[in-house]
Specification:
Helix 2 crosses helix 3. About 20% of the residues lie in helices and about 35% in strands. It has a single domain, classed as endopeptidase fold (from Nostoc punctiforme) (Alpha-Beta Complex), CATH 3.90.1720. By secondary structure, the protein is α+β, with helices and mostly antiparallel strands. It is globular, with a radius of gyration of 14 Å. A hairpin with a 2-residue loop joins strand 4 and strand 5.
Length: about 140
């Protein structure tokens, strides 16, 4: 099973809860050395990806910070991106933070489609501005 195939299984299944917390998201946080009772409101895009990589025995950052993925795997240029590559984004509102997910396609020249956690508080496919990409990484066992 590929990383993307595993991630697709969680689309529409994993989401933040109110009241309470999603135990799967909390389990993902634990893969990043956060407490097992960390609320699901804490940003979890990197935690989600770390847990999936742990399951598949792929390289992982073990950090809840999205930018921690900038050093994992092999760097890839945007022109060489393939479905399933890890894409790291800068956030316009906070340049020191970011977002991370898996590339699933391009909607047009301006946008890329990303499957990831913590996208509208759930696992979903969402489009992001390609100009916000700060890194692309390819993982291999």
């Amino acid at each position: 099973m590929t990383l993307l195939e595993l991630a697709q299984r969680f689309v529409g299944e994993v989401h933040e809860r109110n009241p309470g917390d999603d135990p799967f998201i909390q389990w993902c946080h634990a893969s990043c050395h956060l407490s097992a009772d960390t609320p699901d409101e804490v940003p979890w895009c990197s935690s989600f990806l770390n847990r999936l990589c742990w399951i598949l025995r792929l390289p992982r950052s073990s950090s809840a910070a999205a930018r921690s993925w900038l050093t994992i795997g092999r760097p890839i240029d945007l022109v060489d991106i393939v479905v399933g590559d890890v894409v790291i984004f800068a956030r316009a509102d906070d340049p020191s933070s970011g977002h991370v997910g898996l590339y699933v396609g391009t909607s047009d020249e301006q946008f890329v489609m990303i499957l990831g956690g913590n996208q509208t508080d759930q696992v979903t496919v969402t489009r992001f501005f390609a100009r916000s990409i700060i890194g692309i990484r390819r993982l291999s066992p």
